[in-house]
Amino acid sequence: MQGTLELARELISRRSITPQDAGCQELLASRLGAAGFSCEPMRCGPVSNLWARRGAARPLLCFAGHTDVVPPGPLGEWLSDPFVPTIRDGRLYGRGAADMKSSIAAFVVAAEAFVRERPGHGGSLALLITSDEEGPSIDGTVRVVERLKQRGESIDYCIVGEPSSAEALGDTIRNGRRGSLSARLVVRGIQGHVAYPEQVKNPIHLLAPALTEIAATTWDNGNEFFPPTSFQVSNLNAGTGAENVVPGSSEMLCNFRFSTASTERSLKERFEEVLKKHALEYTIAWTLGGKPFLSTPGKLTEAVKQSVQAHAGYSPQLSTGGGTSDGRFIIDICPEIVELGPVNASIHKLNEHIELAAFEKLPRIYLDILRSLLP
């Protein structure tokens, strides 16, 4: 649709490295305000948040996304400046092209078109935009949701513009995400000279049998919507820097990506049961990055499927794969959530990009969903 590519380029040109917004939301609010939206900035510390709503009736359909992006990495390894949106070979290149400034541009253009077409539309339309999705996610969408709950506002349908697609636009939509539970485990031993094993306790040797058991454990078998819970070690560190010294401690960083078949409590308890079984002396710090959530397929899912079929020629597959998203916060006030956005093959990578054809299809898909749910 006309104007989507141009708006995406304007957004990409702003260096909104998390948690900075770099004026993206001000630009969006200007356009949405002109379309009759009431725009409410909700800044929290260094994080910019925007709640824009048109209408007061139910149902309320909300587009949700983030203007912040991850750092570009080595600039010399980009084929063009990551903050100078560049078109070549049928693609738009730039940081945030796929994750997720193009989706935001498509949201706005679709919303503007819908309002022109149906100025007296039923229900309400909203956008929830944050600059804290790629960061710690503590002052972004979660704060907006808290504010809405305090005011008694709830959302009926939410479309998150995360890059959900695998190989072609709309081939995959997400109706949930796995939870993320991380741990920093420190196992203590006794430091000493490697030549005197009777005087030391090697924490690496002590940890190894327990880690072998943990890595081989089946935590659950998943369910209809989720794959089995997975465990991965992301870092293992020990040593003093000398070849002849047994270290006094070893540190392991690890993570569970867990389904609704397990809970934060059950994973913690089973993990520590193994540590105690192997008589380890340890300390552990847990961080819950997000609980798993599942949105029951309903009117929104059906509308998304029909719109993708109409504009892409195939029916999308439901998935709960990938990392976490802000849907985990929105689920508290919205029963139906779908993530629908560009192909995710280049996100967070060098030379991030999106196919130019998406700028025609994606806003049309969003517009048809609005037509279906807000008659």
The proportion of strand residues reads: 15-25%
Shape: elongated
| Strand neighbour order, sheet with most strands | 1-2-6-3-7-18
**What's the number of extended β-strand segments?**
19
Low-confidence runs: none
Number of DSSP helical runs: 9
Order of helices and strands: HHEEEEEHEHEEEEEHEEEHEEHEHEEH
The percent range for helix content is 25-40%
The largest β sheet comes out as: 6 strands, mixed
Structural class: alpha+beta
Mean pLDDT: 97
What is the radius of gyration?
Answer: 24 Å
For this entry, what is the oligomeric state of its chains?
single chain
**Distance between the ends:** 21 Å
Task: Tell me what the structure shows.
Helices cover 30% and strands 25% of the residues. The protein is an alpha+beta fold. Helix 1 crosses helix 3. The radius of gyration is 24 Å and the shape is elongated.
Please give a quick description of this structure.
This protein is an alpha+beta fold and 375 residues long.
Key features of this structure:
alpha+beta; six-stranded mixed β-sheet; four-stranded antiparallel β-sheet; 19 strands; 25% strand; elongated
